[in-house]
Design brief:
By secondary structure, the protein is of the alpha+beta class. It has helices spanning about 20-30, 35-50, 55-75, 75-90, 90-100, 100-105, 190-200, 205-215, 260-270, 275-290, 295-305; strands at about 15-20, 115-120, 125-130, 140-145, 155-160, 165-170, 175-180, 220-230, 230-240, 240-245, 255, 325-335, 340-345, 355. The protein is about 35% helix and about 25% strand.
């Protein structure tokens, strides 16, 4: 689906509920969201060709390399992807390609996004505007996965078929994602979206830090902003390693679409594809610091509705041609309260509000 600003209407995102072991979760995901998974495959077939100049066969060849790595690094997550393929009636490599979509489109500008963690009177909030092409809008779901063994219950917004994205778990561990583009890629490492899922399976921020410290890096670059009820940390991630961004004096962390850590920027070969990234970062910090009172979903959405930088600002609205990006949803997470609100569509426009809680 390609829509313009004038016709863009955000639907609600259906909830896909899954339980059981990894394979059972995948089968439930695939069978309930089969049409949306197939829609996302078609969307990314076009996106990879348009943005990375890769044919679908070339994209699947890269996906096969990541499938081999996943068998060694995260076999349970691969079992879940196998279940998705079975449930949706699609080839496994199509599902792997979706989960490695950030790696396949290595140097192309993918989703934009403005995110921040806001600590007010000891209460930790996390939020993000997720900006991307309209062609994936019909493929968005809320994935609700029940606890099983050591795996906590989790709820997150994702593109159907992708098993790690933006949301939280039952312990209040929440995360958002900022796309970062670099020249570095390593097929032997954990792909970005599977790294996010690994974080969602942790019981605490401390556990997330410990897991990250044990990894050499991830397959491609990105910034993952992590919170739990005790605080927040930004994690700039790349194939050459990580950089932790600790909260500022007010307990807050802000991020857009460029690497802040200069050492990592130099080593990872950062590519500045978003000239609006630095102005957005400065503006969102200014807006939060000028806000009186504490965060609520309504206050957060008002901040992230800022259009003062134009169509590529905090609230993105340059998708008229179906090629640019619009804000497709916002999420506001109250970590201590184990609850979140998802605003479908633009923060200042029409669209359902979905409430998540544990």
């Amino acid at each position: 689906m390609i829509a313009s600003k004038s016709t863009f209407v955000a639907p609600t995102f259906p909830t896909v509920s899954c339980s059981g072991d990894a394979h059972a979760v995948g089968v439930a995901h695939g069978s309930q969201a089969a049409d949306k998974i197939k829609s996302n495959v078609e969307a990314y077939r076009s996106i990879f060709q348009d943005m990375a100049k890769l044919s679908w066969d070339q994209s699947l060849a890269l996906a096969e390399g990541f499938r081999v790595s996943c068998q060694k690094l995260c076999p349970e997550l691969l079992k879940e992807m196998e279940g998705i393929a079975e449930g949706a009636g699609v080839p496994l490599l199509h599902v792997v390609a979706l989960n490695c979509r950030s790696e396949i489109a290595l140097t192309a500008p993918m989703d934009g996004c403005t995110a921040f963690a806001w600590n007010y009177e000891g209460k930790q909030w996390l939020t993000q505007n997720w900006d991307w092409r309209h062609s994936v809008l019909d493929g968005l779901i809320v994935l609700d996965i029940a606890s099983h063994g050591k795996r906590p219950a989790m709820k997150f917004v994702t593109e159907a078929g992708i098993i790690g994205k933006i949301g939280m778990n039952e312990h209040g561990v929440g995360l958002t994602l900022n796309a970062i583009k670099t020249t570095s890629l390593d097929l032997s490492l954990l792909p970005l979206h599977l790294f996010m899922r690994t974080m969602l399976e942790q019981p605490s921020l401390a556990s997330c830090r410990s897991v990250i410290s044990s990894l050499p890096g991830i397959a491609s670059a990105g910034h993952v902003l992590l919170v739990d009820p005790t605080g927040a940390v930004g994690v700039e991630s790349s194939p050459v390693g990580f950089a932790f961004l600790e909260p500022d004096a007010h307990g807050n962390v802000f991020h857009t679409n460029h690497l802040v850590n200069k050492d990592l920027e130099a080593r990872a070969g950062s590519i500045d594809l978003w000239p609006d990234s630095r102005p957005r970062l400065e503006l969102v910090e200014k807006r939060v610091r000028a806000t009186t009172g504490g965060p609520t979903p309504e206050v957060i959405r008002e901040i992230l509705s800022d259009r003062s930088l134009g169509e590529c600002g905090i609230l993105r609205h340059n998708g008229d041609d179906g090629v640019g990006a619009d804000t497709l949803f916002n999420i506001a997470i109250d970590s201590a309260g184990r609850r979140a609100e998802v605003k479908c569509g633009k923060t200042d426009g029409e669209g359902a509000i979905i409430k998540l809680s544990f």
